[in-house]
Amino acid sequence: MQGIVIGGSKNIFSVECDDNVTRQCTIKGKKLKTEDRFYNPLAAGDFVNIEPDEKNNELGQIISLEPRKNAFVRWNVKGRAPQLLAANVDRIFCVTTPDEPPFRPRFVDRMLIQADAANIEPVILCNKCDLPIDSDVDFRLAEWERIGYTMIKVSAKTGEGMSQLATMLEGKRSVFAGQSGVGKSSIVNVLDSSVVLKTGSLSEKYGRGTHTTTRGMLYHLRLNESLMDGRMGATADIIDTPGVRRFVLDGIDADDIILYFREIAPIVGTCTFGMSCTHTKEAGCRVLEAVHAGVISEERFESYERIKEEILTGNWKD
Mean pLDDT of all residues in the chain? Predict the structure, then answer.
């Protein structure tokens, strides 16, 4: 029978099967032939075929993986392989905060790039908007909106913006991704008060979040009526992913990174030197002209340059 992976670690996965039984499943033969390049063979959201255990109906074996519509991944530096974060999703919510933990726009830029590369719609979700937002943060949030990204400001603490978020999530399977401490689990708890996820405090020494979600998990939410104007029965699927301190891109060449900057990509190829232009100092570089004219912000162009350098050198910053 077929089922959907709810979560898992090592070689044991929770699979919600077609007969409404959630089984703890191992992989038959311990390895999926089609997934040997990944750090982890399966992710929440994967559809698999299983053989139920003849003696224990709560156990089974995964015998094959159905083709994925899409997958959201990152490069796992420690494991030296791409790591699956979620599969078969409609949207990726790139969760950030204006502070606590500190705002990291290049971290968000990397997530946006990886989402666009996977052809998954990204949404920027700024949590903790009850905190003061300084001018630099406000500029970056406005800049993402200006170039075409959807951006939502919410506060899991005060409830601000949560109705708008719930409406956007309804009927979809979405991913919450971001650095540790941005409040992904807290948002889920507000969306559905019957789902109580562990939340953590920030590290006093570094002002960074501690890992409270240890593996990606798929949750079927029954959205709170108070967020849906009293309407009952609204549902959404959320994959809550573990927070990371460093998001490293996977499968994108340094020469192609510019094509994932939405406001820069249309200009690429129009320079005097065409596709040979390095966009560093050439006369007739339309990209640099656009930066000088303010059409492309200096901050986003710097982000492009630094991410390209990170790919070339392998020296990724936090």
Answer: 91
